[in-house]
C-alpha cells in the first residue's frame, strides 16, 4: 500500500470499529503490503466461490454466501492497508504496486467468476475490462498531473456492492426468482463502468487543460 497521495474516500474509515481494528493491527506491526496481499487472496477465493456455483450447483447457496463474505473481507483489507500504512507512518518503494495490482486481480476474479456463474464468461470478461479501464484512466490521469478521480457511477465500491447483493439474492431466494439476474448485473457493470471510465477521462482532460 502506498503512503501519502490521494486516498479513496471511504466513509467506513470513520467508524469506531474500523479505528479499533486498525489500531490493533498497528500495535502488532502488521505490514500494509501484507494486508493488501491477504485482500487479493480473499478476492481470488471470492471469484472461485462464485464460479463454483455453476460447477457444484448442489452447494450453490453456500458458495454464494461464501463469495459475498470474501468480497467484503477483500474490501475490509483494502481499507485496512491504507489505515495501517498511515498509522504506522511507513513507506514502501513498491507501495504503489501493492495499492493497485491486488485490486485489479480481485476485481477481475469476482467479475469473471460471476460471468462463469451466469453461463457467459464473455460478459464477465467485458465487465472486468471495463472495471480495469476505470482504474487505468484514474492512474493515467494522476501520472499526468491530474487529481485522482474516484467518481462513479460504477467505481470499485459500487461494483463490489452490486456483486455482493447479487450473491446474497441468489443464496437466499428461490431459483425461480433469479432468472438472468447475474447476466444483467454484468451488463449493468460493463455499461456503467465504461461510462465511469469516460467520465474520468473527461475530468482528467479538463483538469490538465486548466493547469496549462
Please give a structural write-up.
With 212 residues, the protein is mostly helical. The chain has one domain: Four Helix Bundle (Hemerythrin (Met), subunit A) (Up-down Bundle), CATH 1.20.120. Helices cover 75% and strands 0% of the residues. The chain is built from seven helices and no strands. It has helices at residues 16-27, 32-55, 60-88, 95-117, 121-144, 156-172, 181-211.
Low-confidence stretches: 1-5
For the record, the CATH class is Mainly Alpha
Q: What name does CATH use for the topology? A: Four Helix Bundle (Hemerythrin (Met), subunit A)
Strand percent estimate: under 5%
Shape: globular
Question: What would you give as the CATH superfamily?
Answer: CDP-alcohol phosphotransferase transmembrane (TM) domain
Looking at this protein, list some descriptive labels:
single chain, 212 residues, mainly alpha, Four Helix Bundle (Hemerythrin (Met), subunit A), 7 helices, 75% helix, globular, disordered N terminus
Which helices and strands appear, and what pairs or packs with what?
Blueprint: H1 16-27, H2 32-55, H3 60-88, H4 95-117, H5 121-144, H6 156-172, H7 181-211
What's the short story on this structure?
The protein is mostly helical and 212 residues long. Helices cover 75% and strands 0% of the residues. It has a single domain (11-211), classed as Up-down Bundle (Four Helix Bundle (Hemerythrin (Met), subunit A)).
Amino acid at each position: 500500500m502506498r503512503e501519502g497521495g490521494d486516498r479513496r474516500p471511504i466513509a467506513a474509515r470513520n467508524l469506531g470499529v474500523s479505528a479499533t481494528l486498525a489500531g490493533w493491527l498497528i500495535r502488532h506491526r502488521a505490514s500494509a503490503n501484507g494486508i493488501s496481499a491477504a485482500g487479493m487472496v480473499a478476492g481470488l477465493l471470492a471469484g472461485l466461490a462464485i464460479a463454483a456455483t455453476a460447477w457444484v450447483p448442489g452447494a450453490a447457496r453456500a458458495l454464494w454466501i461464501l463469495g459475498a463474505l470474501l468480497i467484503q473481507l477483500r474490501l475490509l483489507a483494502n481499507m485496512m492497508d491504507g489505515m495501517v500504512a498511515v498509522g504506522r507512518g511507513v513507506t514502501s518503494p513498491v507501495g504503489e504496486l501493492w495499492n493497485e495490482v491486488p485490486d485489479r486481480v480481485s476485481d477481475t476474479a469476482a467479475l469473471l467468476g460471476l460471468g462463469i456463474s451466469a453461463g457467459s464468461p464473455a460478459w464477465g470478461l467485458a465487465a472486468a475490462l471495463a472495471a480495469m479501464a476505470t482504474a487505468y484512466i484514474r492512474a493515467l490521469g494522476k501520472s499526468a498531473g491530474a487529481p485522482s478521480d474516484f467518481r462513479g457511477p460504477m467505481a470499485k465500491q459500487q461494483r463490489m456492492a452490486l456483486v455482493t447483493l447479487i450473491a446474497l439474492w441468489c443464496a437466499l431466494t428461490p431459483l425461480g426468482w433469479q432468472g438472468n439476474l447475474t447476466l444483467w448485473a454484468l451488463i449493468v457493470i460493463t455499461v456503467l463502468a465504461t461510462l465511469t471510465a469516460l467520465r474520468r477521462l473527461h475530468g482528467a482532460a479538463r483538469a490538465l487543460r486548466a493547469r496549462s
